[in-house]
What we know:
Helix content is 40%, strand content 15%. The protein contains 13 helices and 13 strands. α12 crosses α13. 46% of the residues are buried.
Amino acid sequence: MTVRGPLSQRMEAVQAPVIPDVAALIRDTPGTISLGQGVVHYGPPPQALAAVAGFGNTPAEHHYRSADGIPELHEALRAKLAAENAIDVDDDRQVLFVTAGSNMAFFHVVMSVCDPGDEVIVMSPFYFNHEMAITMANARAVVVSSDQRYGLRVDAIEAAITDRTRMVVTISPNNPAGVVYEPEALRRVNELCRKRGIYHVSDEAYEYFTYAGTLHLSPGSLPDSAGHTVSLFSFSKSYGLANWRVGYMVAPRPLMRALQKSQDTVLICPPVISQVAAVGALQAGPAYCRSYIEAIDAVRLMCLQRLQELAPHCVVPEANGAFYLLARLDTPLSSMRVVERLVREHGVAVIPGSGFGLTDVCHLRVAYGALEADTVKAGMDRLVQGLHAILNRA
Length: 394
Ligand SMILES: Cc1ncc(COP(=O)(O)O)c(C=O)c1O
């Protein structure tokens, strides 16, 4: 007999992710160029693949390993964090914790920190998986609006803090807006969190994707940040290892026991072969990712320029990070409706802003990192043409 009882209220409350809906549209419309995918077009460095080539010849290599990651990866990560992020992991105050991707790290942190009804401050537009994790933990995402260029409004964040607030989440470089937050704004948020006794969770999945001389700041490098800052990192984007599922965090030590419980329950230990690939990737180092940045930047500028053709009916603040542009459209149509029409009538896919909590005004996220430059160019031709038609300004 098939059980047909209700699903948990917890899961019923979670928004359905939009990506599978867009993926279904793309499947139904062969030949669609997808400017939707949040991944890079390049694969992992050869060092990562070489590292796993000899993996698995002994039974012991297939056993469970430590919950927080293998020592070889810890050692390489400590060196990386010190050199790249100016975070010297202080074992008395912090833990370094490897997970199966940084989404999982975020989930563990929410499970570890939030009781039902607690509040987590996220910025609008938010990253949907953050909001979903918060809702799954029966906590509440308190969405604080950003400024017109998607920058942080620190005063608004401060005003949103209540006695139920447990953490403030920032993502820089940002998905979906592509903005890199001003170092001073991040510093103020971090200090605010310290003063109010709440966590600052800093998602840095796109740490290497900055352009036009913009620098990335890890709030975890700031003085007096170790006790309240959780820094999340990922191998998915920089090293082209998205489906290998390796991420890691630096977190205040008091979270350790709770993180271990969550990790032990859902994962036991991060996949060892993926960690071995990550050690190999770190041998290639950030030079690997940086070798692609100039070309990605050229694609970014091309996309920005093409979208300007639709001004003033389409506004796209210049965004110096990640590989996203967030377009604001002057149309009464919903963003999902616009995406449906773009796919079906013009053969190009982007992600609707509704997935990121932008439901009042139509927004579209354009991702320019997942395809070779020529394909992005062809996709932009279709997008600009399609939007001209949809916005009725042909
Ligand atoms: C802001 C942000 N954090 C985390 C992730 C997921 O990273 P991972 O693959 O390490 O789970 C993404 C993926 O799109 C992202 O955009």
